[in-house]
Amino acid sequence: MIVMRPVLEMCTLDGFDLWPVADVERFGFLPLGGELSPAEVGAAIASIASCNGSDNDEDGPTRPADPLASFLHGLLTFEDVFAAGGLQVTDTSAGVTFQPGCCDGLEDWRDWHQFADGGSLLGFGHTPMSPMAERFGDTVRLTVDGELSDSPVIELSVTELRTLLEAVERDLAEFFALATEWILQHLPGHGVPVTAAVARALDLAAPAVTPTPHPDVIIAVTDPAPDTRPARPAGVVRDLRARSARSAMRRPLCCAAMPSSPGCHPDVPEECPAAGVPESNPNHRSEQATRTHMTAVAGSTTMGQ
Fold this sequence. Notes:
The protein has one domain. It is 32% helix and 13% strand. A hairpin with a 2-residue loop joins strand 6 (132-136) and strand 7. It is built from 8 helices and 8 strands, in the order ββααββαββββααααα. It has helices at residues 38-51, 67-77, 111-116, 158-186, 191-201, 240-250, 252-255, 287-297; strands at residues 2-9, 29-31, 85-91, 96-98, 121-123, 132-136, 139-143, 153-157. The chain is an alpha+beta fold.
């Protein structure tokens, strides 16, 4: 049996105390769906906010002094919200699991639809782990690590992939329903913008009207924000150069402290561009190093001519 789940890479900070969160393994993957407990939903919201917590946007608004507003600052002000994770595929009969890579994120999960509709290759990361999806006619091959000649693979039909993607969207919608309720209960003063930001992180439409958690609490009406991202060049399923550059600016607070993270590169000791991450940290690839590296591999993201 093949199962596909949307998963969030957990980036909650040590000692986090702004709201109740579940004790979830840091840098592990949390499957998203309607079965999560309130504490797990709280951990997921904290993780998404944490991944967008750097101060790299010098032209953006000043970070407020209030601890809660400061923690939510990036989530509420960044134009491109990043949610570390992606789609995890497990072949339960073979015991093989295909994990999201370092250049993956839940905000890009719909790339899988474009891949199913005519792509030939979809890349999710690079050294030290290079998961990739390829199409051979009506067959989809998911390679756990494209750097290995004997890497485990999962094969399924394009029809099966589309069915799995329908289940993924249901999981995300059910999680978002839980998240919307959780946000209104725990962050009533930030309900509308946080709900909209989480919707963008999951590439879902924000509700036109946000329900009120209590008769005495009034939540303003908001329309879904239009997608202002530029269209990809013809033939490109995922442009790893653009994806990688964005990851370098958004992801450092998530991956820098984890020596074995799929996004960490101990062989590249350049200074980390993110505020709050020690410049001596050898486990984070700088934006320039990432751009240089991905320029060499970006050709692998184009569809066959």
